[in-house]
């Protein structure tokens, strides 16, 4: 039995091996003589706007390629390509068994087919004649064809075919076209440095594009190419060092029918990272983005209109803009520079993704954190020249005494005033009270990425000490616009393959990251034109009469970056103006430099927006400490009765209770513990490391104005004796008896017995106000038919007040019949 099974197995193995050999021998070698587009590309991937109708970019329209032979390709680029792609190219027979085995085990462990191990020959086969399916059958076919090709073509022929097939980004294919497009020369004339760049790009043509935002990564990979060439003795150490130190200028990027280029290439970069460059290049995907093409055109036009003037007046060569729908996170417009194709100013660099210091545009995140901790817009801090570094006395190099934009100091200010007017000193104090770590956590939760560890920052963080991107800033401000709910920004709505199957569809996913009232407080302040007018004027470019628009500007201390971010409940728009190379601008604030272009765009889209208003925030509690409610003259308070001037009691009418504060001018740290706002006043405020630094300027300011401290001895020593329960007026109502009709005129009169003369009587029927009488006789006449919600038996109520507002009340039942 065992022998029979063994025999059957041998027969099956023989026939299986024979079938494989037959398939191997009959598998045709492809014809590589034709470089037409149909062989290389099955279908063109297209990127659309949000309507799915406007083509922003078609990856394979107008493919550009010039085929050259081996002798017309620089030896440097041949060696560089072999060094980085397949350093055993001249030794193997089309495949590298050990590399395949290593890739097999890696893929087995990850349950994927991402690990390669491909030789140049395999890549030629894959890019030229096979689909990009991650299937074992396709991989086997690739291996077989690679071996057969090596049997009939020389290494020179294979390398020449490969270099003529290789994609270099966009519609560029082949070494000759890439050489002419990037360097303006033939492939035969490429030097070592240029060749190392061209060998570095094909691994991820969009990511490593010299026209994108990853130029530093391209430099790293170029240097890796040189290292590999040295290791293979293709170049000497001296040549490698010289090449690494040589600066290369790329030709201007050509306009190949692309709309919204910064946005589109950013989208393409994402797609290639997720699906792989081969899938994006050859699968005929339909990409529907979030971009609003009409708004994109407006944004581009505004940047083009204002950029020349900004360069002339302020030495600002570049500008960028991002527009986001805060209710969905959709990116509606993205302009990464004044002109993508302007290489003189690095126009291909997408400034909206770059990390720059935001200046005062970062302040709202700090104030939001403070509001989360029960500080209020009315909380008072002193805007006075202040030394903030506790080590300044022992190490003068560490002193930190910042100023304001106008070098003036304003004394006591509410947080509303400080944020609206962008005053630095109170903002630094607000950061200390809110906490650096907590402020960073707030900003991160709202969408600001890569701020890093809180330990790397100090108090300058609130003035823009971190680095952020314009995209993240606009997205984060959208949280304020959306009542505290964050929708991460979206660039894609849908990705479909060439058969219409949906590969990816973006869903709207909101998550609350900020208390609703905190978001409303920030929006209320940033849209308060009266609060910001002392700095910006009543009719500034930040103001849109009759519309709710919240806005914040930012200028870095060194005048290298100017920002403005504004929003309504429907849209958030941010703009940046500066120089890509960080050279400083004229010393002007953002309101002068970047606000005009932002205002122009906002005015163009305003007619398309509904007149949606920001919801009102909740009012501040009245039972919190005076300094949290806008009272800076002192922290101890008492209440008096306005009618008697004596201490108010529980019987004093609320409208006659007047708050008085014991005069004593101190910094906020004297009145409260920042870790326990509503607890008792600190018994030893000196324990707070910032107390002395804040307190001394405040005390000097108060002394200069003749303000001296008092004690509770200034309060009255006796209590209110005119408002007591026994002094309440006793009222009686006289009116009709028996049933009345709806249309009948009814008259009622009130009499009172009281210690003080009666001054006013208010009349109500079923809690509906009927009117008041302010002189004797205290009476009123009315017709029941004018009152809503009448019943058969109705309550008639009279509330009377004497001359010192003691209150009494009387009721009667009024019967109404049809």
Name the features.
Penicillin binding protein transpeptidase fold; 25 helices; 818 residues; five-stranded mixed beta sheet; elongated; five-stranded antiparallel beta sheet; alpha+beta
Verbal overview:
The structure is a single chain. The chain is 34% helix and 16% strand. Residues 11-26, 33-42 and 107-116 have low confidence and may be disordered. The termini are far apart. With 818 residues, the protein is of the alpha+beta class. Among the domains are: 1-30; 62-251, Biosynthetic peptidoglycan transglycosylase-like (Penicillin binding protein transpeptidase fold, Orthogonal Bundle), CATH 1.10.3810; 626-714, no CATH class; 725-817, Immunoglobulins (Immunoglobulin-like, Sandwich). It has 25 helices and 26 strands. 42% of the residues are buried.
